Amino acid sequence: MKKLLAVLLGAFALQASAQTYPAKPVRLIIAFTPGSSTDIIGRAVAAKLQEIWGQPVVAENRTGAGGSIGSAAVLREPPDGYTLLANSSAHVANPSIYSSLPYDTFKDFANISPLAGGPNVLIVGTQAGWKTFGDFIAAAKAKPGALNFSSAGIGSGTHFNLEKLKLMAGIDVSHVPYKGTPEAIGDTIGGRVCCYFAPINAALPHVQGGKAIALAVSSAQRSPLLPNVPTIAESGVPGFDYTLWVGLWGPAALPADLVARINGDVRKALASPDLKDRLTKLGTLPIDMSPQQFSEFVRKEIDDTAKVMKAAGIKPQ
Asked: What percent of the chain has pLDDT over 70?
């Protein structure tokens, strides 16, 4: 009888916690640098959740190791919904990049909700002398291994995008990981590296300002923000398609009803006209999924990424 009572009281407490959540400020750990796609999307959603919840949502950038430092930081906090993680598709690539992650990417996290996704755009500095994607491919094939290609860090979506292109286009370019997108763009524009698969929202001001040249977008369709820039698929690599997406996670022990509550509020935020408009102007689109759908999506992304990395000969470090 006492055991049954304890179970019932525990269930009541969990239900009550979900109904009253959040009763204090929520901390959002963003796994990439300020100005990165993950940061911009994460902060935009956080601002809308703050309106919905009536509690501050405080964003904090914890960067490094392809987003895994931020991911690990969330797992050190209580599974009560007051510390959440915003990470990119790097989260699903890291198991294929790092041999000694301090966590299990699938088992140790509650998959709460995707936030938004959009294409990367292959940019080069004006000094490169390339005007088309074909020019870049020709240069890469002429001097295998000689070109240096930047990314926002080992395991980042920009890194995976590069490895997928190398595999499908049959080119060999050297990977140079940076701390984040702003640094990678800066050195690409400055000519210290040849090119970068930049999140489109981060690249757009530099392309419009004439400091960078956009050669191709990574998605299957052209981006409305760069309608005159072709896709990689139509530029000579049939079937190429890659979208950089951002999601929201918590510790695996986060109660299911609290996961459902946060998921519902995130979907409400993403459906609001002002946030949808803001995300669209950034070149991204909201992604609507239940926690179960997101979990299935994450599992598939982990498996698909592993297949590409293995085919590309990338061994966990």
From this structure: 95
Question: Quick check: helix, strand or coil at residue 92?
Answer: helix
Contact 232, 197 (CB under 8 A): no
- Evaluate whether 201 touches 40 at the Cβ level (below 8 Å): yes
DSSP H helix total and E strand total for the chain: 11, 10
Residue 275: is its pLDDT beyond 90? yes
CA-nearest of 62, 8, 73, 5 to 34 is 62
Kindly give, in sequence order, each residue whose CB lies less than 8 Å from that of residue 153, ignoring residues fewer than 6 positions away. Answer: 32, 63, 64, 65, 66, 67, 90, 159, 177, 178, 179, 180
SS (H, E, C) 241-284: CCEEEEEEEEECCCCHHHHHHHHHHHHHHHHCHHHHHHHHHCCC
What pLDDT sits at residue 22?
Answer: 98
Q: At 297, list the tokens.
A: 């999506």
Long-range residue pairs from 269-273, CB within 8 A, at least 24 positions apart, any chain: 269/45, 269/48, 269/49, 269/52, 270/45, 270/48, 270/115, 270/116, 272/48
Determine the Cα–Cα distance for residues 153 and 27; give it in Å rounded to an integer.
24
The 10s digit of each residue's pLDDT in 104-135 is: 999 999 999 999 999 999 999 999 999 999 99
Contact status, residue 266 vs residue 112, Cβ threshold 8 Å? yes
186-225 pLDDT, tens digit per residue, is 999 999 999 999 989 889 999 999 999 999 999 999 999 9
pTM above 0.70, yes or no: yes
Which residues is 217 bridged to in the sheet?
121, 231
